[in-house]
Amino acid sequence: MYETFYGLNGKPFSLSPDPNFYFASRGHQRVLSYLRYGIHQGEGFVVVTGEIGAGKTTLIKTLVNELSGDTDFVIGQIASTQLEASDLAESVALAFGVSNEGLSRSQIFNRLQGYLTQRRLEGKRALLIVDEAQNMPYSTLEELRMLTNHQVGDRQMLQACLVGQGELRARLQEKRMEQLRQRAVAFCHLGPMSQEETQGYIKHRLQRVGWKGRPELHQDALDSIYSETQGIPRRINTLADRIFLVAYLEEKEMVDRDLVTEVARELAEEQPSASDESEAALAGTQKMVSGQGEELMEQRLSAVEERMGSLEKLMDCRSLAKALIQSLQRT
């Protein structure tokens, strides 16, 4: 839509992580340097954390692109969605393309070990990248630590890179994670971009798709985008994409602060407010409580009915016994 109108050869603000749009902010470059260092150590864990939308996945994809041209590396990737410890070996095997159909867990583990041992004997290094690692149960993290303990000679067979949100960082500080934490050769956190970097990021992405200055971006618009997004790449992409769409629909040749404010307000209105979520939660609770109350009342009524039935039977028995006694007395 707006790409054709403004003479762009692609979508500049896609939400899908794309290393072709990697922007070397100070924070991103620092984390990438830590990753390179940690991975070339060939041992232990590399841990990358950052808030939602900070650009972690784009960063990792950029690194994978770099390493894909290095024949010394074999790379496997998994996304942790509450992965259980008992399923870890199977997931890791699949990540490296190791066939395990119809095999038991012990057979899968042995086949994976065989694969990793062979790669190490060939002089290759196996790197496992675990995305969304904050979702991993403690037992699975411990299982992963044990899996990376195996060596061929004095060389580690498998190195792991854990990528996750800030919760991962907090979890690794807990006492029960001390052994894993001690084996982290690089530990880095990806924060938001500065105001200057945010402006550079926007222009960088536009230039990647052939932007020639249409529409013109007024300085106050760039300042306003930073204020609205606080330098978080995903937020910037969401807001900027909508700004360009509205600018196209209104055939604007300049993006200014007013347009940014208008679009930011629209996006905010589309998101459920905290009060809406609270009301929805309260309504759900009330409905649940109401349902439980009705169920409890039915149970009580059933109990009363049973008791009434028992009483009626008892009264009938008493009446029968009384009549029998009177009959015996007459005789």
Automatic annotation (TrEMBL):
Signal peptide: none annotated. GO terms for molecular function: ATP hydrolysis activity. Residues 42-265 form the AAA+ ATPase domain. Gene3D superfamilies: P-loop containing nucleotide triphosphate hydrolases. It comes from the Bacteria. InterPro entries: AAA+_ATPase, AAA_22, ExeA_AAA_ATPase_DNA-bind, P-loop_NTPase, XrtA-assoc_ATPase-like. It holds the Pfam family AAA_22. This is Putative secretion ATPase, PEP-CTERM locus subfamily. It comes from Thiohalomonas denitrificans.
